[in-house]
Amino acid sequence: MSKAIYPGSFDPVTFGHLDIIGRSAKIVDELVVGVLVNSTKQPMFTIEERVEMLKHLTKDYSNVEIISFDGLLVDFAREEKADIIVRGLRAVTDFEYELQMAQTNHIMEKCVDTIFLTTSLKYSYLSSSIVKEVAWLHGDISQFVPAFVIDKIQEKIS
Ligand code: COA
What we know:
The chain contains 6 helices and 5 strands. By secondary structure, it is of the alpha/beta class. Helix 2 (47-57) links the parallel strand 2 and strand 3 (64-69). The radius of gyration is 15 Å and the shape is globular. Bound molecules: coenzyme A (COA).
């Protein structure tokens, strides 16, 4: 049985992330979306809020679970008994950093391999920071995040 981790900050989750979640959930038997407690970023949403949003938006997938983690991704993968890490590649600029991470993770934990999915073209420009910036400047973010997330962002901004 295959079990994979899709890690990220998801601050907030976007249509781009949901695209990767939906497609990878079809490939593996079990998918854990690992929500990172990232001390290097200043998040808009608490870890609990990010987990809650993801749980709501993935409730129709029977094989997807949302769990927060801190520390090393490979330790989290080991704890979850997952041997696959899923990452989305948006553009060639993502590749070098992703390659470094995949190789480092594989050296630290031989049983863990990273698979890459190309992000759908219509989301290849997207990032959570861009969504937040557009929202702060009162722009329309309905093409980037679901209505449920728009409401949560509006609550933060107002
Ligand atoms: N669609 C839309 N946006 C996407 C996307 C997609 N498919 N994939 C990534 N993004 C965006 C994210 O929203 C994020 O935007 P932001 O920087 O504005 O918040 C940006 O691209 C970067 O995303 P990502 O590379 O996933 O960074 P992250 O901080 O969300 O997650 C981890 C990085 C969790 C994979 C990595 O930091 C990690 O593994 N940390 C654990 C510590 C560790 O083990 N370190 C050693 C690694 S070798």
